[in-house]
# Entry
Amino acid sequence: MMIAIDGPAASGKGTLAKRIADHFGFACLDTGLLYRAVARDVAARGEALEDEAAGARAAETLELATLDDPELRSPSAGEAASVVAKLPAVRKALLDLQRTFAAREPGAVLDGRDIGTVVCPDADIKIFVTADLGVRAGRRYEELRRRGDPVTLAEVTEVLRLRDERDRSRAEAPMRPADDAILLDTTDLDIEAAFDAAVGLIMRRIARQG
Ligand code: DC
# Structure
């Protein structure tokens, strides 16, 4: 069973992916972390984030054991990831790894921007998680404030808006719902309600597939 979860930044897709994976006993891969780690490694080698050959080298030599680096969760790491994610050679170098993970038995949940469209076009279930920009920014702002980050809500909103715009408008694997994705709008849902809604959608899809 392959479950693809895509959506914009701070839509709650990562939390949802983990909850679904735990619920069904599946493996879970946050593919955003791959791009975040590639950007980190490119910068650590003193190379430019826009340098496609440098990005591809970093992607090819990526150490999966370094994905639990807490620094990768920072807003600046997300921003840098979005820049390297535009580069076709970087995306290509990360494809096999993601597809191998997606084939894990008894199942795998992958979350990102292009899982349902490019990485796993044959996924059994595709969910595209959305939420209004203001709601997403508010959630991210609260999270950062709890961590002691002195950002303002206006700054968080603008950073998310620009990142979504970059992810949506790039030529290679832009963020968009697959034609057969189920849209899940979490604007008015907390994580419990979003999780219940997603499990309901998955169970109905499974029942229909027999
Ligand atoms: O999901 P995230 O915020 O950790 O992702 C960080 C960036 O990585 C995101 O802005 C775009 C890129 N990304 C991507 O292009 N494709 C994916 N499947 C996952 C992330």
About this structure: The chain has a mean pLDDT of 95. The chain has one domain: 2-201.
